[in-house]
Amino acid sequence: MPAKLSVNLNAIAMLRNRRDLPWPSVTGLGRIAMAAGASGLTVHPRPDQRHVRFSDLAPIRALLDDEFPGAEFNMEGFPDEGFLSLVEAAQPDQVTLVPDDPTQATSDHGWDFEASRSVLETVVSRLKKGGFRVSLFSDGDASEDGLRIAREVGADRIELYTGPYGGCYDDPSEAARIVEQLGRTADFAAGLGLDVNAGHDLTVDNLPALAARIPALAEVSIGHALTAEALEYGMAEAVKRFRKACGQAV
User: What pLDDT, in 10s, does the model give residues 177-200?
Assistant: First the structure.
């Protein structure tokens, strides 16, 4: 089954936040994305609210509940108490834990699973008791021992950080090397019983090779490149282009 597409709304929110005005509408463009066949919506509410604001969370949850039942809401963030409280209020279907410093511009590395084991055990246990699916952000070359720890702390999935893959858009040989590394990591994770998501700098051009190498890829979360495509093609057409890149029938 082709990977599902979750549309990350952070870039849309960042554009809106340049003015003290309600447009572009985060929920409005989320609605268009869902109507065009996206499987869900993703947000990463950072503490400074420079992207999605805390006040966006309830309307996004309501949009999916009221108009697209069965679609998924994915919340990403560093698991401090503030983020966990937002999760418990918004009730997403999936929580993706990332090891971001609050001042980072964007996520740029996965968890050091061994060093963070104690923290992850506590947080994952809390989230699982709340009924949430938990995904852990992982480097594409994560060690086998690290992936075993991800499984042992109770994660359901990992999300492969694909930034380095996206960054070699002008180097086909390096892209091929990295996609094979991502594939090996996904293979090992799957063998442990972990489902595999992916995200960061995925495009309509580089996504097909990743999907071909990881045929069991469960979900891709895409914001920056999809928003850039939407500026050129419109949101609905951008979603269709990414769905096709995932291998979905459009």
Answer: 999 999 999 999 999 999 999 999
CA angle 95, 231, 27 (to 5 degrees): 40
Overall pTM surpassing 0.70 (yes/no):
yes
Tens of pLDDT, residue by residue over 202-216, are 999 999 999 999 999
Helix (H) or strand (E) holding 119: helix 117-129
Catalytic residue annotation: 44, 76, 200
Provide the number of structural domains found in the chain. Answer: 1
* Residues 164, 165, 168, 169, CA torsion sign: negative
- Domain extent, residue 22, equals 4-246
Phi first, then psi, for residue 235 (nearest 5°) are -60, -45
Choose among 81, 84, 92: nearest CA to 41: 92
CATH number at residue 226: 3.20.20.70
